[in-house]
Amino acid sequence: MNDSPTDILRKICDDTRAEVARRQAEHDLDDIRARAKDAEPPRGFARALMDAAASGRTGLIAEIKKASPSAGLIRPDFDPAAIATAYKDGGAVCLSVLTDATYFQGSEADFTAARAAVDLPMLRKDFILDEWQIYESRAMGADCVLLIMAALTDEQARSFEELATALDMNVLVEVHDEAELERALGLRARLVGINNRNLKTMVTDIAVSERMAVQIPPERFVVAESGIRDFADIERLKAAGVQGILVGESLMRQDDITKATRALLGVGA
Ligand SMILES: O=P(O)(O)OC[C@@H](O)[C@@H](O)c1c[nH]c2ccccc12
Q: Which SUPFAM superfamilies does its entry note (predicted)?
């Protein structure tokens, strides 16, 4: 690994730790645990994806993303509830909502507004570095959390997965290369996400998913993430064994999100 101190992921993680410490000062562990216990029951995230795949469709996790470090502001007229509804009408089976404020201009309010607008299972998309954030995710109503192998030790990944599972959430484990994949396969998570974006260079290339999907054993469910733009991309990914996709930017840039989502999935209007 050639992690340098200027590595963007490292910087995001440092800032996230500081931000989490600020929030922990408002809600300590007992408090956030109690809120997680009282949260609305989980919606089956992995099940929704698997049902789609079982009926021959590529399960779309559509992402609500206002801005990103690589693209800057993506959607100025940002209404998470309206976008959630448009995604659902377009055929998304799950939603992902960025809650990181510093780099993605997201928030917990975006997440809860989207969740209230639709009945789709919800991924809380953030940089999870502390068990406190797992309770926090369930407390806001998350049905799935993302665990980024590049940001975690094996021990952290294992214990976070165990906690998320105990709270009845699913886990999407994210990998970008073979070394991370090998570590991820040591976990129990069914859902393995291959991030096409190189977090050091910010370049996306769906060939990363094509190369890696074939290395993932059939009992796992393969999700390709980032840089997916059209139906031709999906056909390429499907041919490589990808069963689900996570798409944000290319849909968030469209005026008519429902229409764009249908077009992406190759569904007639
Ligand atoms: O907007 P895109 O290129 O369609 O990508 C979506 C999603 O894969 C991307 O937002 C993402 C994948 N892994 C992440 C980890 C943190 C933040 C963001 C991400």
A: Ribulose-phoshate binding barrel
Distance separating alpha carbons of residues 111 and 117, to the nearest angstrom: 10
| Cβ(195) – ligand 1 distance below 6 Å | yes
Catalytic, 195? Answer yes
Topology classification of domain 8-265: TIM Barrel (3.20.20)
Q: Which tens digit of pLDDT belongs to each residue from 153-192?
A: 999 999 999 999 999 999 999 999 999 999 999 999 999 9
Distance of CA 35 to the CA centre of its chain: 22
pTM of the model: 0.96
Identified catalytic residue from 66, 68, 88, 125: 125
CB 191 near ligand 1, within 6 Å: no
Strand partners, 221: 191
C-alpha–C-alpha distance, residues 74 and 24, integer Å: 30
